[in-house]
Amino acid sequence: MASLSDLVNLNLSDQTNKIIAEYIWIGGSGMDLRSKARTLSGPVDDPSKLPKWNYDGSSTGQAPGEDSEVILYPQAIFKDPFRRGNNILVMCDSYTPAGEPIPTNNRFAAAKIFSHPDVAAEVPWYGIEQEYTLLKKDVHWPLGWPNGGFPGPQGPYYCGIGADKAFGRDIVDAHYKACLYAGINISGINAEVMPGQWEFQVGPVVGISAGDELWVARYILERITEIAGVVVSFDPKPIPGDWNGAGAHTNYSTKSMRNQGGLEVIKKAIEKLGLKHKEHIVAYGEGNERRLTGKHETADINKFSWGVANRGASVRVGRETEKDGKGYFEDRRPSSNMDPYVVTSMIAETTILWNP
């Protein structure tokens, strides 16, 4: 008799050419990922060859009940690390039946910015450092913490090892490998300053793909924590008090910044970001004011600053970039729950297209 595990892990390619495509989209809150699966007649590697699909937008907060149909447009394909074989994950965005992007479709506006000839010519690279916190499912308290109590103060947990310092490494490593399998440009992981908090990095990735890859990496993480019976939180300050918050530091460079003399281009770009500080803060994640306090390796939310190797600044330039006279910079303001479509495109728009 086959076990449930045997059936879940059935290799379909032994019996059929048909594959399963898991369509993924972002729900009405802007952070709730949704997905559903459909059968396709055979392998597909081009999103333009995938059929559009629909869903009930009244159940995701994206359409009224009397006109609830929302259409999914496939945009990016990844290998499915859960079903494996030729099965795929499909990142989609959402439209009305008339073909208009719905109000919560931030990918559409981002794609317009990234397709602008001036932006495309600069080949913008992104590396996003996604921090998150693992919580016990029943009490919503960080993994490894005593229920209702607190561990020892911060210090030994950042990149720490050992059963009394690192909590949830099996989930983190499973996620790392699943992302590599899927074809996501995940470049590393590490335990963070607060116990139970971790980080993964996606990049370098060009343009709109940075958003696609980060969203699918988040999806894979949510699925793995579902299997493990753990909750993942992207709250920018999950525990009040003397504990680090969670961000999504966004590393960025353009072709001009990576070329000789790029440091001057970087300085001009940072100056532009300073002039639009308030607009960026509004778009950089909900609840960010609880994180950007000027403490715990953050800058004050109300003041723009930048510096070389300064983790207490809004924007940090690395020592190597300063020494080489070219490279990249890190925008440290985005929170862990930011929308990467919004943040990446806004940085490109401000630094490349906007002329103050």
TrEMBL record:
Gene3D superfamilies: Glutamine synthetase, N-terminal domain (3.10.20.70), Glutamine synthetase/guanido kinase, catalytic domain (3.30.590.10). It holds the Pfam family Gln-synt_C. Coiled coil: none annotated. The keyword Lipoprotein does not apply. PROSITE patterns: GLNA_1 (PS00180), GLNA_ATP (PS00181), GS_BETA_GRASP (PS51986), GS_CATALYTIC (PS51987). One of its GO terms (biological process) is glutamine biosynthetic process. Keywords: ATP-binding, Cytoplasm, Ligase, Nucleotide-binding. It catalyses: L-glutamate + NH4(+) + ATP = L-glutamine + ADP + phosphate + H(+). GO terms for cellular component: cytoplasm. Its main location: cytoplasm. Residues 106-356 form the GS catalytic domain. Its EC number is 6.3.1.2. Residues 19-99 form the GS beta-grasp domain. It is found in: Cytoplasm. One of its GO terms (molecular function) is ATP binding. Belongs to the glutamine synthetase family. Homooctamer. This is Glutamine synthetase. It comes from Daucus carota subsp. sativus. The lineage of its organism: Eukaryota, Viridiplantae, Streptophyta, Embryophyta, Tracheophyta.
